[in-house]
Specification:
There is one protein chain. The chain is an alpha+beta fold. It has helices spanning 3-30, 38-59, 65-76, 78-81, 85-116, 124-159, 166-190, 201-204, 208-286, 290-305, 316-332, 350-369, 423-433; strands at 191-194, 197-200, 335-340, 377-385, 388-396, 437-443, 446-454. A hairpin with a 2-residue loop joins β6 and β7 (446-454). α9 (208-286) packs across α11. The longest helix has 79 residues, at 208-286.
Length: 459
């Protein structure tokens, strides 16, 4: 390879490396971008990376400043990318930590390979060819290691969404930040010029040839394990929230069932007393004391007016839940229609049905409360179909409704996020007990939740 050819090779090599790293950066971010206009967002990411790498190369900025500038620009463009600033910051840190860690490991392999190949003193073309082969092998090995690291991080991050509060972000950023700083220090020590003599770190301290790659791998592994730990903690908090809410709902249902039992006991007592009331009414009528008779009948009417239960579903648990939501809807100006009949026979647990109803109707009520006065409505249906029991709740809602990767609506509540968005998860879990299905739809400001349950033989 001639000197001119080697110069052209260097130009092509630099452009190829820049495109390669920009491509890896874009692919790493790809799975975290929203589906809407994803191609445009990918092009924006790629363009930002290429532009600022070219600018930094032309302006000869200090080492390490490129990452800071790129991070700042990505944060500024986070809204257009459809990502939270905290997510952009963390992903950028992880990218550069993986790039630097893989670079240190590839540098060690490059040093070993360089010492393994014979170094010809002449001709000059052979020297240029050897250098071109070595840097090409370095780029390929670095790209392979780097891609594997990014892929592992990407897979890890996709397993469980982590709510990025500032405290969590600081914790997650510790390991990659330390890895980046470590890499910046080592890059300054790898090659030095002293009194016109080239000094390489691995030549002066051969032990570092094994130590530095291990340290770089440890920094990367710490970042990966920190993410895994936070994901496990997030999953644990969500599980605790689910069980806490289910416990609260069960306790509330038990309390309302106790109220229902007292209600029916009072009805039985009234039926027992009714014979005496009829005797008194007959006596007052025969004696002609019509004024006293009217007052007596009014008192009886007043005493039984509190016993009215409009909806009878066929089960005390579902009676309590449906009538409670009905009273709330009437108070809030929400139209409520119910055609719910609890299956008299069949292997269905009343508490399981109660949890499903409680969550579906509670979500429907919260959605209708955000609709204008008098515009909200809830329609409940529950019918037996052979060995199956079908429950359907339809309600109006305002605004836009998005669905997450799990098929459930994305909660818009910002506070106590672990305590929200688990209602439908509870419904899905109860549905799975009966080998059933949960179907959710949102069309023209109407949300529909359909639950299909199958009889269980073990109940």
């Amino acid at each position: 390879m001639s000197e001119t050819g080697f110069g052209r090779f260097n130009q092509v090599f630099s452009i190829t490396a820049e495109l390669l790293y920009a491509g890896l950066f874009t692919v790493f971010f790809r799975s975290f971008l929203p589906q809407e206009h994803r191609q445009k967002k990918l092009l924006l990411l790629f363009s930002i990376y290429i532009l600022f790498e070219l600018v930094c190369n032309q302006t000869a900025l200090p080492q390490g400043s490129f990452g800071l500038i790129l991070t700042a620009m990505l944060l500024a463009a986070s809204k257009r990318l459809g990502l939270e600033k905290r997510s952009v910051f963390l992903l950028t840190l992880l990218y550069f930590n993986a790039r630097i860690s893989s670079g240190i490991m590839a540098e060690s392999l490059y040093f070993i390979l360089e010492r393994s190949l014979p170094f010809p003193m002449e001709p000059l073309e052979t020297i240029f060819l050897r250098a071109a082969v070595l840097v090409t092998l370095f780029l390929l090995s670095h790209a392979a290691l780097f891609s594997a690291m990014l892929y592992a991080l990407q897979r890890r991050l996709q397993k469980q969404r982590i709510p990025l509060y500032w405290q969590d972000l600081c914790y997650l950023a510790l390991a990659p930040s330390a890895g980046i700083l470590f890499g910046q220090v080592i890059s300054r020590l790898l090659i030095e010029f002293k009194d016109g003599v080239l000094l390489q770190l691995y030549e002066r301290h051969p032990v570092f040839l094994a130590v530095l790659p291990v340290l770089a791998l440890l920094f990367y592994a710490c970042a990966w394990l920190t993410i895994a730990f936070q994901q496990n903690m997030a999953a644990l908090r969500e599980e605790q929230a689910v069980h806490y809410i289910e416990y609260q709902q069960t306790q509330a249902i038990r309390a309302r069932i106790h109220e229902a039992e007292q209600f029916y006991a009072r009805i039985r007592q009234l039926k027992h007393e009714m014979r005496g009331h009829l005797t008194n009414i007959k006596g007052l009528a025969q004696s002609g004391e019509y004024a006293s008779l009217g007052a007596y009948i009014a008192r009886i009417d007043e005493s039984i007016s509190g016993f009215e239960r409009t909806l009878q579903t066929g089960n005390p648990v579902t009676d309590v839940i449906v009538n409670d939501i009905r009273r709330r809807s009437l108070a809030a100006g929400v139209r409520f229609q119910a055609d719910f009949h609890y299956p008299e026979l069949g292997a269905f647990d009343a508490f399981d049905i109660g949890i499903i109803l409680q969550n579906l109707l509670q979500n429907a009520m919260e959605a209708c409360e955000k609709v204008g006065q008098g515009a909200g409505y809830i329609r409940l249906t529950g019918k037996r179909r052979g060995r199956f029991f079908l429950i359907e709740v339809k309600n109006s809602f305002a605004g836009k409704l998005g669905f997450g990767s799990d098929g459930l609506p994305v909660t818009t509540k910002k506070e106590d996020v672990f305590m929200h968005g688990v209602g439908l998860s509870n419904v899905r879990r109860e549905t799975e007990k009966y080998m059933g299905e949960l179907e959710l739809k949102a069309d023209q400001q109407e949300f529909s939740a359909t639950v299909l349950l199958q009889e269980r033989s073990d109940l």
